[in-house]
Structure formats: C-alpha cells, structure tokens
Amino acid sequence: MTQINQLRNQDEFVGFYLLKELEVKQTNANPPKDYLDIVLCDATGEMPAKFWDASSTDKETFFPMGLVKVRGIVQTYREKLQVKIMQIRPANPEDGVRLTDFIRSAPISSEALIHTIQGVINDIADEEIQAIVRYCVGKVEEKLAHYPAAKTHHHAYFGGLAYHMVRMLEIGDFLCGQRLFLNRDLLKAGIILHDIAKPEEMVAELGIVSEYSTPGKLLGHISMSSQWITEAAIRLGIALDSPKVLGLQHLVLSHHNLGEWGSPVQPQTPEAVALHHIDALDAKLQMVEDALATTPESEAWTPLIRGLENKGIYRLKW
Amino acid sequence: MTQINQLRNQDEFVGFYLLKELEVKQTNANPPKDYLDIVLCDATGEMPAKFWDASSTDKETFFPMGLVKVRGIVQTYREKLQVKIMQIRPANPEDGVRLTDFIRSAPISSEALIHTIQGVINDIADEEIQAIVRYCVGKVEEKLAHYPAAKTHHHAYFGGLAYHMVRMLEIGDFLCGQRLFLNRDLLKAGIILHDIAKPEEMVAELGIVSEYSTPGKLLGHISMSSQWITEAAIRLGIALDSPKVLGLQHLVLSHHNLGEWGSPVQPQTPEAVALHHIDALDAKLQMVEDALATTPESEAWTPLIRGLENKGIYRLKW
Amino acid sequence: MTQINQLRNQDEFVGFYLLKELEVKQTNANPPKDYLDIVLCDATGEMPAKFWDASSTDKETFFPMGLVKVRGIVQTYREKLQVKIMQIRPANPEDGVRLTDFIRSAPISSEALIHTIQGVINDIADEEIQAIVRYCVGKVEEKLAHYPAAKTHHHAYFGGLAYHMVRMLEIGDFLCGQRLFLNRDLLKAGIILHDIAKPEEMVAELGIVSEYSTPGKLLGHISMSSQWITEAAIRLGIALDSPKVLGLQHLVLSHHNLGEWGSPVQPQTPEAVALHHIDALDAKLQMVEDALATTPESEAWTPLIRGLENKGIYRLKW
Amino acid sequence: MTQINQLRNQDEFVGFYLLKELEVKQTNANPPKDYLDIVLCDATGEMPAKFWDASSTDKETFFPMGLVKVRGIVQTYREKLQVKIMQIRPANPEDGVRLTDFIRSAPISSEALIHTIQGVINDIADEEIQAIVRYCVGKVEEKLAHYPAAKTHHHAYFGGLAYHMVRMLEIGDFLCGQRLFLNRDLLKAGIILHDIAKPEEMVAELGIVSEYSTPGKLLGHISMSSQWITEAAIRLGIALDSPKVLGLQHLVLSHHNLGEWGSPVQPQTPEAVALHHIDALDAKLQMVEDALATTPESEAWTPLIRGLENKGIYRLKW
Amino acid sequence: MTQINQLRNQDEFVGFYLLKELEVKQTNANPPKDYLDIVLCDATGEMPAKFWDASSTDKETFFPMGLVKVRGIVQTYREKLQVKIMQIRPANPEDGVRLTDFIRSAPISSEALIHTIQGVINDIADEEIQAIVRYCVGKVEEKLAHYPAAKTHHHAYFGGLAYHMVRMLEIGDFLCGQRLFLNRDLLKAGIILHDIAKPEEMVAELGIVSEYSTPGKLLGHISMSSQWITEAAIRLGIALDSPKVLGLQHLVLSHHNLGEWGSPVQPQTPEAVALHHIDALDAKLQMVEDALATTPESEAWTPLIRGLENKGIYRLKW
Amino acid sequence: MTQINQLRNQDEFVGFYLLKELEVKQTNANPPKDYLDIVLCDATGEMPAKFWDASSTDKETFFPMGLVKVRGIVQTYREKLQVKIMQIRPANPEDGVRLTDFIRSAPISSEALIHTIQGVINDIADEEIQAIVRYCVGKVEEKLAHYPAAKTHHHAYFGGLAYHMVRMLEIGDFLCGQRLFLNRDLLKAGIILHDIAKPEEMVAELGIVSEYSTPGKLLGHISMSSQWITEAAIRLGIALDSPKVLGLQHLVLSHHNLGEWGSPVQPQTPEAVALHHIDALDAKLQMVEDALATTPESEAWTPLIRGLENKGIYRLKW
C-alpha cells in the first residue's frame, strides 16, 4: 500500500484510504455530468481526487468518513498533485483495514494517554478533589480516548484533547517543583478539568470536528465544565460553597484569562494564573510542532498559522 | 427635624442622621489632636461634618452605619457646605427613629416590589420554569427585599435590584405583546434570574455595597446565577440537558452580550436578545433618572455619569 | 401561480416572478456560449435560475428588477434547488401583475404606516417641533412610503424604514408612560427624524438598496438629517440657537451613541439616551424576527446574523 | 517689574500680575482662618502664591482674571517656588497696564493673523466658496482675533486658533504647488472653516478656555461648523445640493479622520485627505514647539505631552 | 504599437507587452486541455489574455516578467475586455524593446531622483551624519534606483521608494523654514534613512514586489534600518552612544508612531514627530494621486483604497 | 534589632534602617515648620515615619538611600502603622551594617545566579552563539549581579533580572527535553539575551529603579539588545546576515509578541514562540509569588496587581 505523502506525479497505485470529504459535482458540459470531488487521506497526509462519470449507484455508495479501496493515477493540476481515480469500491470486513489507521492522531496511543491521566487522578491526595475530577472525567470517559482539543486551532486530531492534558500535566508537575506555593492537587485537577466538557461542546468523529453542539453554542465548554463540577459536588455530597469547589470552578472559569477570550472572570488564585499560562504555552508550541510536521522538510516556511498571530514558522538552518 | 437637602449656610439645627462614613483623623497640630471626619446622610442627601476634639470615649462610641442625634451649625468650606458638630450622641430605642428612614431607596416599597415579582412568578405558565425560578429566588428571598442592583453603576440603593426587575418585567410584558415570537415564560424567567445571584456576589447593608464577596470575585454573578439553575434542576428532578434548563442558563450567561462585558456566550435565542436590550435600556434610563433626581433643579447639567459614556445629562428647557 | 418557497425538486411550473439579479455569462465550452444567470424572486423568497443558449435578442430584452413570466423545471445542483428555465418573456400590462406583489415588504401596508406616522405628527403638542418634523418628513414623503431602513443590516425591505419608525414610536409611547421625565414631543420627534435622511443617503428601488448616493457617502445620513433641521428652522423662522432646535439636532446627531458607530456626540439628554436604546432594541429584535421568518421551520438554527455578533438564532422547543 | 520666569528664591519684589486662579481656603487651625490661594501669571509663566489672613473685604475685592499689584517674597515649598504675598491691590486705570500684556499668546499679533486670513479669503477665486467662507468667518469675526484653538491640547493661548489657521494655510499653499490635483480654493476654504465654530463651542477669555458651551457639548464644533455652511448657503441663495456646498461640508465633517476622533465620515476628496494631515502635522509640531518653549533650557526632557502619545520631547545636543 | 489603455472591443492588433502574470491552466473539457492564462501589461495599464491550446513548447517558452510580441483580438467577457491571443513569441534583442518601457514607474526618472537624493546628502552639514547616511545608502545604491516603497500600499512601482524620499525631502525642507526648532540635518537624514532597508525587506523586480525576504519577515525594515546605522557607526569609528547615532536610530525606530503600526518606540524628538507626519502626509496624498491617475476620468469615484480607511476618492466637479 | 514586619503599635524600638524615601515638608502651622517625611525599609518590608521639627542641619544630613540608626515609637495613623522618630543619625563604618542587608532581593544570592548563568553560557555548544552571548553579557556583567528586571512590574528587586533569567533557563531546559524540535542553544541564548540591555535602559541602585535612561526612552531595551548582537557579530567577525545572528536578533525583537507590547515583529521561529511564553509564564508566576510573600498571612487577598489584569490573588484554604 502506498502512503499519501509518498505518491509522485504519474504514479499508478492501488491502496486503501479514508474519504475525508466527498461532494457530488457537475461538469460544465451541456448537459452537465456528475462526478465525485473527493479528498483522500491516510495518517500521513491528504490529496484531492476526482472520480469522473459517477453513476447513480456510485452517488449512493460512497459517503464521507468511509474507507475505500482505490486504483488511481497521480496527475498534476495547477501545480499541485491530484488523483484521477480509475476504480473505487468501499472497504469490507475481509479487507482487514481499520479506520483508526487512516487518521491523524496524537503521537502517543489513546490507551497510554488515558492510562497516564488515570494515574494522575489516582495520585491526587485530596479525596474530595479526586472524587470531583473522577466524576467529571467519567461523564466523557469514552470520548476522552479519541476527541481532538479543537476544531482547527490546535491538537485538532484523534486523541488531541488527552494528549494536550498529558503534556500540560508534565509542565504543571515541573512547575510545582520549581514554585512551592502552587497546590499540586488543585493544579492537576485544573489541568484535567479545564477543557473537560469539550467532547460535549463539539461533535467529532475520528478526531475531526464537524460542528459545535447546541449546548456548546448556547453555553460554551467553560460554563459546561464549571457546571459539571457543581453537579459532581451535589451528587457526591460536597458543599457547593466549600473552598475546594470554589477553587475548581474558578480554575475552569478563568482559564481563558480575559473576557474577550471567553472567561467571565480573570485568574485570581496561584493555580489559576499557572493554568492559563501552561495552557497557552502548550497550545502554541503544539501549533508550531504540528505546522513543522505537516510542512515538507524542503519548505523553509510553514503556512500561516492563525493562532500564532497569522505568521508562518521559519526553519532556521546553518 | 431638618432634612439635609434643606440645610443652608449658617443654619443651626438639631436632628437625627445616619453616620454613612466615619474616620478618626488627626489635626496637623504638634502634637496632633484626634477628630471625627464624618459623612451624615438621610434619605434626601448627604453632607460632610467634623467633630473636633474627639475624646477616647467618642472614638469608641460611634461607628459607620449608626444613627445619631446631632446639634450642629452649617459652614462653608471650599465653596461647599459642611457641618461643624457641636453635640452628638447615638440614637436610642426611645428616639423612635428607624434606619430605613434615613437611606436612599427605590421609589416603590420593598413589599410592593416583592409582591409584584411573586405575582409574576405565579403567572409563569410552565411549571418547570416556574419551579426553577421559585427555587433560585428562594435562595435570596430575604436579601431581594433590600439589595441594590450594583455598587455604584445603577440602581445603587435600598431595593434597587427588585426595582430593576419590576421595571424590566413591565417592558418585557409590553414587548411580548408587540413581538409575538417571544416566549413570555422564558422572558419573565430570564428577567428575574439574570441578576439573581447579585445578593451573594456583593456584601451590602441598607442598600450600600461595601465590597464584593469572595465567590463574587472568583465566579461572578453570571456564573453563580447559572449554577443556581443547575442546582435547582437537580434538586427538582428536571433533566439538566432539557431545553428549558438550557434556555434559562443561556439567558443568564449571555445577558451582558459580549465577552468583554462578562458574558461567556452571546445571545442566541430571541428572548436572550430581548433580555440584553431590556436590561441596557432600563439601566441607562435609571441612570438618567437618578442623576436628574439628585442634581439640584437649578443646575442645567448633572455631574458626569460613568455608565453614560462619562457624559452629563442636560435639562433642556423652553 | 406557484410561490417560490413552495417549489420542490423536479416540479414543472409556470409563474410570474421578479428578475432580482441578471448577468450574461459564458459557458466554458470552446467557443463559449452565452447564457443568463438569474435570481428569481417573489414575496416569499428567491431561487437561482439558468436560461441556457440566450440569443442576442434575449440579452437585450431582460434586465434586473423587471417582471417576467417563466416556464421552468426545478433541479438540484450542489445540494441546492435551482430552476432550469424552458421559456421566459417579460410581463406586460395585460398580465395584470404588479411589481409590489413580488417583493419582500413590511408586514403592515405602506398606507397604514404613513397614516400612523402622520397621526403621531399631528399629536405633537409643540407647534415648532411639529412644524420642523413636518418639514423634514415633507422632503422625503414619497420615498418614506417604500424605502428600507438599511441595505442589509435590518428592516431591509419595502416600507422597512416607516415600519421601524412605527414600532419605535410604540415603544417610545410605552416608555413615556413608564418614565415621566421623558418629554413626549421630543422623543416622538427624535424617533421620526433620526433616520429621516436615509432615503437620500441610499439609492433604493422596491425596498432593495443598490448603492449609497454621493451625498450619502460624503456626509452620511446623520449629518444630513441634522442639516435638514437647520434648513427647516431657517425656512420656518425658528431661531437656530433655540433649545428646541438644539434638542432635535442633538437627538439626531447622538443616536448612534459612539463615535466609532458614526455619532459625533454622545447622548446627553434624557430623550437622546432613550432614543439610542429604543433604536437598538427595535433593530435587533427585528433582525431576530426576520431571521426566523426566512429560515424554514424545520431548521433549528437560523444562518449567522452580522448585526447579532455574527451568531445564529436557535429555536428552543419542548 | 520682575517677570515671573526670573523670580528666584528669597527675592523680594513688586510687580503687576494676572490672578489666573483664586480660591478662598481655610487653614487647619482651630478655628480655621481664611486665606487666598492664588496663581499669579504673566506672559512668561505662572507661580503659586498665598495671601494669609485675608479679610472679608479682601475676599470680595479680588477675582480670577483680574490684574493686581503685588509686593511679595519668594519662598521654597516642597521644592517648588511660591510667593508669600505681603501686600496686594487691584490694578487701576492710572497704572497703565493692559490685560493682554499678561497672557500667553501666539508669536504673531492678532491683527497680523486676521489680516493674513482676510487676504487669503480675498484670493479665493470662486465667488460662491469665497462668499460662504466670508459668511462663516463673519459669525465669529471678533472672537477669531483672540480665541485659542483648544482647551489644553494645542495652540491653547490668545490668538491660537487664528495662528493655527495661518500656519496651516502656509503648508496648504506649499502642497498645492507640489501636488497639482489639489483644488487651491477648496483647500484654503477647508483650512479656514474646519474649526470655525470653535469660538462657539468653547467659552474662553484671554486665550484661556474655562468650559465648553452647551451647544458645544450637544453638537460639537464639527457639526456646528458644517451647519454654518448650510446656513450660509441658504442665506446666500446657493443650492444646498451643489457640489461646492457638499465639498465644503465634507471637508469640515471629515477632518478628524475617524469616528472615534469625532468625524462622522472619513475623508473622500483629495482636499479632505490633505486637510486632515495638514491639521495633524501642524498641531503636533506646535505641541513640540510649545513644550520646548515652556521648558527651561537646562532641562533635557520636556514634561509628558498627552497629544504626543504621552511622551516627553528630548533636546538632542552635541 | 497599441497601448493597452487604448484597446477597444473587436480591435485586432500587434504589439509588444510584458507578461506580468502567467499560469498554465486546463479547460474543463474531458480530457482537459492546457492553455495559458495571462496578464499583459505596459506602462499605461494591464489586460487579461488567453492563449488557447498551448503546446508543451509554449509552456516552457514563456515565463512571468518576460517581454513578448503578441497578435491578438480584443473580446468582451463578463462585461470586461480581454485578449484572445492568436500568435505570441518572446521578444528578442533585435526588437529593440526595453523592459523599463513597459512598467509603471514614478513620474520622475530614476536618474533624476537619485541625483536629487545625492545632492541632499552632499548638503548635510554635519560630517558624521553625512557619512552615516552615505554608508547606509551605499548598501542599497543600485536597488534604490528602481525599488518601490511598498508591495501595494503606496508608491508601489518602479522608483517609488526614491520618489517618496524626494517628495518628503521637499516637504521637510519647507517645514524647516517654517519651524526653526527643527534640525535640518537630522530631518534630512531621517527622511533618507527611515525606509532605507526596504530593498532588503522585500524582493522586487521592475517595481513589483513578489514577496518579503526572510530577514524582512524576521526583523522588519525598521529594525534592519536601525541596525545599518549601528553598522555604519562602527565601521566609521563613530561612538555608538553618541547623540547623533542615538538621534538617527530614534528617527528610524519611531517613524511608524505606534507599536501596533510597528514602531517599538514613539517619537520623542522634534524631528521624529515631524518625520512621522511628513511620511503619513506624503503616503496618503500619493495614494490619492495614484488612485485618481489609474481611474478613468469618466468615473466619479475611484475604487476603495485600503490605506485611506477603505474609502474611495470622489472627483468633485462643477 | 527589630525587623520592620515585626513592629507593632506602641512598640518603642531602636534599629538600623534604610531611608528609602525622604522629603522635607512643612506643617500647616503659621508660620509652617519643617519636618522630614520618611519611608524606612529593611529586607522584610517598609513603614512610613515622621521626624518632627527638623533643624537646618538635619535637612542637610539625611538623604534617600542612606542607612540610619533610629529610635522611635510606633503609632497608628489612619488605621495604618507609622513611626514617630525620637532620634535619628546616619550609620557610620563602625556600625558594621551593610546596605545590601536592608534591601529586598532575589531569594538566591547574586553570586549563585551569575554562576549559574555563566555555567549555561559555557554549555552552549555552538561557538559563535556562545561568543555573541558572552560579548553581550560582558557589556553589563557588573550590573547583572544586582539589577532588577523592571521598575515595578515584576522581579523589581536586587538581583531580579538574573533571577528571572535563571528561572526561565530552568523552564527552557525542561521544555527542550519535552519538545525535541527546539534548538537548545538558541533557546538558552534567547533567554539570556532577551532583556540583556535592561541595565542600560533603566537607572537603578540597590534593585530600585529611579528612572529610565535617555537611550532607554529613545530606543527601548528590545532594540538596544538587538543592536548589541549586531555589535557583537561585527566585533567577532561573524557575518551579519548569517542565520545565527538573524535567529538571535529575531528572538530578542519578537519576545514581547505583539506590536502594542513593544515587539516590532511577531515570533516566527520555534524558539521565539517558546521564549515569549516562558517569559510570560515566569513573570506572571513571580508576580503571584511576590504578592503572596509581601502580604501578611492573615490577609486572604493580596492587593491588586497591575500585571495580573489588576486583580488580587486569593489564598484558598481548607
């Protein structure tokens, strides 16, 4: 099987791919003919493709996010590579291919990420804080194994949210050693809870966000996460006005730092100040890493990155 | 008894007043002497006062927010009137004076305001919405009778919060008649709930806010109000993801309209759009009304008002 | 005749429509052929249409904003409905169709709106204010019966400007009853005059603004409206520095509230504060109403609305 | 007579000065005594002064903006010079002193400035433009001889407004020679008219603005100037919709460039673009010149200047 | 030879032109055919062109920024003129045509501009300032003869940077006569140096900027220009902390006035304040001039201009 | 000796202190008497003090930043402690007290900080980068041992700048282990160089900044640091356009991230993105740590902190 980032002009090839996008279009002929305008992808990248003269059956057979077997030829169109599809059929069980092999995902396996997060939760010394964190994580346990952290902004891939948490937990652990006034339990809990409602804010499949949910639009993940803490405290019989509940809610509510970035209050505990900056540091460095990883080594500049003041990143070499 | 807004230069007078502010200060003499630097107020206004040569007993007898009987003389100091206190003593039960007679308050009695609000709640047709509103109002029932709506911004007096609600309910009622797409139950509930946690966000006595509470600073009244709805739903057995709970929380969360004004989400239901604008309209008109009421008729311009783009209001006359 | 919002895929139909937009385009064939790229509309909505193989005569026969009779068939193109036109001819007098039946318009007839506005003017008690309002309205009397209030922002349809006035007058009347410090004559006059020069700022036909006029661009409707008051006062012999003239000009100049929204001064009279907020309230609620009305009942969310922080409106249902 | 910028510590002196500011204050003694807290000024600068033990007669004799004869001694108070007044009396006709000798004023005489402006008006070739300019200047002719251009921002002294005009006319004249697409009549007229209503916007005496007038606050000088053009056109029988009237009004309305700086429209004619930048260039350079002139030569840095991004100006020397 | 701004529909013509843009595209036919999508230009304007059925040889023969001889016919496509190319070949030495005759350029010849700038440098009285200026100009001497001042913003054509300098020097010279506190040497030097590194910040050919260089993106022309002064001082043995070096660097660093416009410090010397405003005045007036020059006389409004608050310029006529 | 943070009301005490601030003032008596208005400090805090009836000799004996021996009594004035000084004399060599014992300083000794920084420099593998860093550090070697990092914002004490560097180096080292795409040499160098010119931007003694230097105001530490790199490269014979020089300058120029925060370019290399966020993280956490350390344990809230959105920090306890 040929990986997408290894296809070259004029290659003829056969392989399995994911139909990341699919649209039925018409040629400009009179009368117009239908064809399938497709984006094929695997874990190494993606490439546009055309399947000309699509039949009525074809239009009902293929759908976005499905796996397919393709025979095609690579051509150059407007200075970019694209595939002319000669044959295409849906993958079937006998093919033995798995969706998750064809999508971009965090560099660490979901299982390992979840295992790390569960380990950190087990290490939280305060039992009430631990119970609240466990309750909230429990609400999205299944989704946490695969959700991205955002639609496009950063960590936008399979397992991205858990990966973001794990990296932040590492930085938080280091800072707690460097700055003794930080409460380790609170900071751990804040890192795990700060985006915990994102899997309910966004609708995602295989690490790709298709849209925001209605509660996501009407409440936002910050208020949702904060309300899960309220719910946890009530269900667990912890006083709503206890300092621990207050502290956890404040961490979640303030982690975007400013009102115009979505936080109704600004960080006012040591851990809340730390949380915001750990979040920013990890997200921005991940944007850099992802841009470098998806830009060919031969390119000195990555494309412009919205979250980095709309600048590209330069590979300094000597 | 002489009301403060009727005192004139050189008047000698006797009367009961509220010690709104009191600080022990020293004269610049060597050695310095102690005196009491005071603000006297009643329901018609306030005036600075000095009590020279305060004894040790005096310093322990008087405290802010206490009622006193004063014999004094009015003088002019730097073009403003101030009182030189000749005699002062605390009021006692036999004097028959009540604190609430000496403070600025809404033009409608607390009892009438609460009665109106309860009537509106009773008229909410949807039983679940009604129960949630009743639960949240129940958490601050006693305070709702006297809390101001803000520290200084608008409706900053005894009963101000309830008065703001009642006026907004009137406007909301009118608009529901004019615009049939508005859901009357939701809009009523939104008006009553939008600032419902303010009595826990601020510490106030007699309509005067002294400071923000710790939960007020760490969470803010918007998130607190929203979480009360969560709490109400859980206690009442209403599903947290039901459209009614979602709709009420959205009303509360979005009513400041923009992130920089404290709302984590923007209005996205018809009632939420209406709520924000009714709130703004009533608050701004009340600022105008209060500025006009507390500025002498003889002045063409009121002082500058922060909430009105820091402009004064002009009395146009012909 | 079939209304546009009732056409379904594969329908064959005959009907009268308005050519809202029309452009001659070429196919990509070599040599290219001309066809007409059209938007058909009636009072219920609009739909794209193509008339292939347009002759030279066709290209000279049809023009935007003309009424036509069409025989066509509905097809699906890129998941949206569009009309393939089989036959098309201009409407003629015998057809008995009127342009105004084919355009979107305010829910109240122009005649009724104008009648209401004239009634309010007649009720203005102050004769000088009344005369100035009458003079300014007189300058655009004919256009007031059909002009929209804006190009796209809100009330962008036939009679929209008069409709906006009438609704605002209702709210203003209610508020004058609720807040006795508001001068009813001034507020009425301010509502009628605040956008009175819009018909000279914009070039519109049938409620559709095609562009801004040169005076509209160089002066703007705020300054133009204010100068009409100057003109009225001079023509009517009212002193330019009288408080009434000053008050009316201030209402007009300040009604956008902030410099960045186009107002050179901020509201500094009670009526000016009220006017700005009534204007905002009515415009925003109308955006909600219009978005709901033009979005199919089956859609939970309306499209994004620029004037509402670029958010959609959600239909809460239970 | 000793000029204020030449007084040194311990000097005993006699001289005439202007009472720029005067307030009756009380000492902290018990009972307090009255004294006069004064700012003395002449054309070279100003200095605080105290007149202890003021009698009742004194308090009625002296008033701000009056000329006085003073015998005093210079002392140092908190590292700054101040005058202890030994004797003080009002100036009288026999003293032969003139107010205008004691105030800061433009470096060119009012008469010369007005003469230059009238000469430029006479040179305007277009008779209608000339007539409109003449009409508007006629409304403030007397005040133009002495008004400042602003309260504190720039050119805040006797004759400052006319001086600003003359300097701008020089720059405009140069640019018309350099850029032939500029209409010399329009640019001249725009420069003269852009701030022409300032003498009605502000209340000033001897080049010192005490406050803004009511029309100044409610309309602003930009709208007032624009409306004078309307008035001129009507009185002179020039069509209000003629391109000349439109062009002049646009120059005035747009000269602050942005809405947040007070202009309801942005510059859209060549002369309007030029006018805004000539105005900015002249105002900023004058702020520099005035700061350098009023800062002792021995100081390397002037005080901070609000209009120059709140920075000081540095005297670079080698 | 026919100039581009004189071509009319249906003209058949032969002439030399510059291939300003060239892209190989495919028709929508199946299989698609290659054609050349071209923009032809000369000094009077530009026009799109198509060369159908391009051969493999054609695709290797033509390239952007090359001169060609074309035989073509003018057609109308979507209401705009475009050329159908019948024959095309590259220009060759015997044709005697020069690239510089086909591009837009400053209204004064490069030679004259450079001569003027060199003359100004020779007139700088201070030898150290003169030497620094000469050193920096020496680094880009060849490029200064043809570089534009910007990619699209203003003076975006052959010789634009030098032309901008010369016009600014004229204004600076005038202001030094009007305002005697300005140091003529410093202001001249600041004008010449303020954009001196732009030829290294941008990659341009024939006055057309194709992209920013890597140092241009990583440092920006302001920091680069400032560092050239450092380099000059070291090479010339002038103390880095001397007031002249400090003054020149400050002029360069502050000339964009605000941080958000790219200046790390704000103007704090008289010449720096002047430099910023001369730069703004000249750039804005040039935008006006260029917009008027490239808009047909028959159009009342120019297209919108980003640097002028995104407004068009109106040709007032009477 | 009694430390300042242990003095209580009515304590009589004798001790050595630093005169952090000293001003000669006058009482309001007539005639006024001189007294010394003083701020005493030691390493644990500071307290206001008064020395009444100062003689002429006293006024010439004491000066700010001098050490003194004081006998005094603690009193309460306006609810705050202040010292009434009974006796005061300057410290003399025999007293054996050292200035550095009386000032606030970093929690790690200067010697240790400098030793750490030098160790990091020695570990830079790239010789050219190492040489440039060494050159720049060499320019401020003596000052680096004691300079603060800012006037008030953060690390505003003895050794604060070096302490900030060392903590950032620790974080940077951790991140290089976590994110392998970061170049360790560049990041180390960027951390050491990013504020390296601050000791020349500010005038400081004993960790207290009194003002900004003239080069500090005219160039700013960002441009100064960048130019030191230029200077280093020239002196060391390293090409100015080499990628290493470019990379180091970019790190320095971009580390404030945005133009409005003083950076003329935005971060565009991986290390530049990291540097900005490490700087922000360390500065903000240090503000928290310093606020907690200087607020009595008994206070739940610290004072408001400008750099933390003007919020206080809350001590959450349970």
TrEMBL record, chains A, B, C, D, E, F:
Pfam families: HD. SMART domains: HDc. GO terms for molecular function: hydrolase activity. CDD domains: YhaM_OBF_like (cd04492). Keywords: Hydrolase. InterPro entries: HD/PDEase_dom, HD_domain, NA-bd_OB-fold, YhaM_exoribonuc/phosphodiest. This is HD domain-containing protein. It comes from Paenibacillus mellifer.
